[in-house]
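Example for tutorial group B:
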């Protein structure tokens, strides 16, 4: 006997799959998937689009040391981030990501609060992805020589228009994303390969560029060891080039697996996702290193500064300079398109995060279960961030890097904890060291550019405050996803349904015959229940009070002549109300539940209910029933004696 899925939970699951369903080909039906290389392009609109601004930011941050600092970044990508997310893919094949791993490894309220803090950094990462990508797309628009002069001072306005268009796309729907992503990524990478190849040819034709670069290096740094030390200190400023791994895990349900895959063990999907992550990391590493070399050697330092023609668009500068404005304009259009689409990837990620976690915790208002209101909220937040940062790419780089690095640090920490949980000494040591590297990079970035942690702190504060208010507001909802009774419990219910169904709510203590004898006698005397009427005992034990939605398993137990229904739940009153309604639905009779009064401060019991799932049980049970069943004549009876 199983109750149908709670409507709130059903809507949450629908919204979780919204982005995935919107991206599936209609002819493939609800379960169609795609080759890993196509899905890689979907993640690539975020990951690869950073080439639009990463070389310029790297040159501005590290100067002549940019190639060496980028090499360190590439090594961290291939031997740090990639192994971590290959492990995460195996642990979260349905797209939950590293946050879900930490949620399982850190249960109870401390785990929930930790997840809420991480969601603040997720919001920072994705919101800044939208605003920074749009701002860089704007830079490519206004720096194009064919664009009218009056647009050159309209960076904020153009960026707001691009963000508004992005929001409009999601308000209408988001279909055929993979096909468009494949086209955009293919064209963009091809144009970048042409531009970098032409740049390499120019360096080959003019070897003085290498000599000038070496002179600049040794003028500032006396020996290679000093260069390496400074590069290690500088490479955290290049952390934008690490983005994209979390997105690669989120889209795992779109990756085509093998015919032997099951929902519990999708080995083919995991294997192909690992191919996706590896290919993306290798491709990006190649472009990061080569783009850093050609831009550092060929572009004058002054052009990287604010107001310079290469600021935020170093490769576009080379495309225009060496191949003319026609090719440069094509490059600009490709860059604008993929940067704008990178914002779409971030918006989809935000729409996936909220319904995946917050409603399940009871920590989101009901309107967050609808996609369109969330799109409006995220778009307005992106407007505010764009105005505050004046659509400046460099100014937003710190905030973006903070979000990316915190997520990658949490992912490394989750994998290290998982390795320790499985008693893998080698894995624990290796991933702990990688975690320390990411933590160093994160802390260094925060110290250098504290605006990122300020924005994250704002999002964390807003999420925690909204979540706690929502948890209190929704605490009296019917929170059972479904209810199952074992064979013994079903037998008890069938026997009881021959007459009036009476359940005595009992807090389990010793569990012996004397406990049930005394409890039954007390309840019969207080409520004038005839001694000939049979009764059942109902006992709910609190499992994890920080959870919100339950799958309740009810088992039947006999102690002497007494029959007991036992279950575990996050909240006692909500579970009792759900079981009473399920008994009504199954038997067609209104059950009656009997409680005793409790003494004490009502505020104290309210806090106990919110935090520990107990409190003033009869009063709260009645309120849950009132909200779940508006018709009093169809509402199970609640009796309080003593």
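The residue assignment follows.
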């Amino acid at each position: 006997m199983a109750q149908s899925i709670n409507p709130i939970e059903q809507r949450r699951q629908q919204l979780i799959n919204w982005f995935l369903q919107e991206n599936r080909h209609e002819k493939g039906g609800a379960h169609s998937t795609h080759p890993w290389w196509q899905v890689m392009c979907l993640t690539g609109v975020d990951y690869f689009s950073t080439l639009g601004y990463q070389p310029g930011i790297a040159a501005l941050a590290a100067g002549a040391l940019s190639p060496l600092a980028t090499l360190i970044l590439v090594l961290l990508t291939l031997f740090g981030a990639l192994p971590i997310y290959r492990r995460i893919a195996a642990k979260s094949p349905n797209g939950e990501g590293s946050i879900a791993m930490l949620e399982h490894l850190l249960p109870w309220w401390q785990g929930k609060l930790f997840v809420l803090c991480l969601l603040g950094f997720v919001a920072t990462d994705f919101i800044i992805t939208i605003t920074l990508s749009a701002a860089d797309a704007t830079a490519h628009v206004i720096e194009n020589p064919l664009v009218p002069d009056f647009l050159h001072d309209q960076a904020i306005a153009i960026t707001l228009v691009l963000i508004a268009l992005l929001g409009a796309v999601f308000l209408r729907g988001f279909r055929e994303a993979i096909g468009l992503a494949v086209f955009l990524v293919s064209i963009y990478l091809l144009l970048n390969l042409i531009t970098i190849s032409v740049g390499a040819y120019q360096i080959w034709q003019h070897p003085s560029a290498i000599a000038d670069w070496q002179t600049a290096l040794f003028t500032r740094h006396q020996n290679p060891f000093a260069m390496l030390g400074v590069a290690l200190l500088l490479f955290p400023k290049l952390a934008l080039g690490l983005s994209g791994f979390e997105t690669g895990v989120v889209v795992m349900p779109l990756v085509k697996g093998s015919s032997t895959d099951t929902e519990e063990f999708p080995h083919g999907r995991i294997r192909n996702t690992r191919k996706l992550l590896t290919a993306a990391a290798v491709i990006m590493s190649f472009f990061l290193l080569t783009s850093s070399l050609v831009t550092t050697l060929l572009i004058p330092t002054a052009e990287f500064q604010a107001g310079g023609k290469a600021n935020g668009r170093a490769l576009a500068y080379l495309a225009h300079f060496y191949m003319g404005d026609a090719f440069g304009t094509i490059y600009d259009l490709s860059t604008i398109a993929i940067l704008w689409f990178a914002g779409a990837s971030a918006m989809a990620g935000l729409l996936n995060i909220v319904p995946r976690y917050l409603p399940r915790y009871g920590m989101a208002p009901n309107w967050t279960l609808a996609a369109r209101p969330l799109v409006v909220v995220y778009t307005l937040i992106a407007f505010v961030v764009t105005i505050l940062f004046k659509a400046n790419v460099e100014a937003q780089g710190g905030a973006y890097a903070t979000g990316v690095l915190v997520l990658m640090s949490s992912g490394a920490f989750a994998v290290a904890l998982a390795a320790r949980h499985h008693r893998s000494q080698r894995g624990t040591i290796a991933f702990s060291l990688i975690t320390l590297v990411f933590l160093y990079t994160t802390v260094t970035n925060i110290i250098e550019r504290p605006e990122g942690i300020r924005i994250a702190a704002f999002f964390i504060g807003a999420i925690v405050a909204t979540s706690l208010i929502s948890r209190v507001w929704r605490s009296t909802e019917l929170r059972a996803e479904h209810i199952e009774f074992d064979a013994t419990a079903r037998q008890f219910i069938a026997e009881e349904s021959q007459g009036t169904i009476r359940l005595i709510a009992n807090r389990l203590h010793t569990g012996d015959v004397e406990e049930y004898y005394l409890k039954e006698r007390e309840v019969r005397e207080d409520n004038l229940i005839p001694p000939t009427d049979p009764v059942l005992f109902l006992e709910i034990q609190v499992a994890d009070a920080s959870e919100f939605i339950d799958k309740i398993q009810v088992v039947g137990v006999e102690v002497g002549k007494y029959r007991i229904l036992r279950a575990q739940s996050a909240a006692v009153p909500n579970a009792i109300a759900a079981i009473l309604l399920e008994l009504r639905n199954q038997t067609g009779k209104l059950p009656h539940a009997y409680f005793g009064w409790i003494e004490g401060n009502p505020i104290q019991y309210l806090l106990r209910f919110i935090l520990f799932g107990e409190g003033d049980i009869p009063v709260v049970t009645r309120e849950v029933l009132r909200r779940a069943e508006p018709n009093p004549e169809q509402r199970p009876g609640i009796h309080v004696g003593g």
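The chain has 24 helices and seven strands. Compare this with the pattern of hydrophobic and polar residues in the output above.
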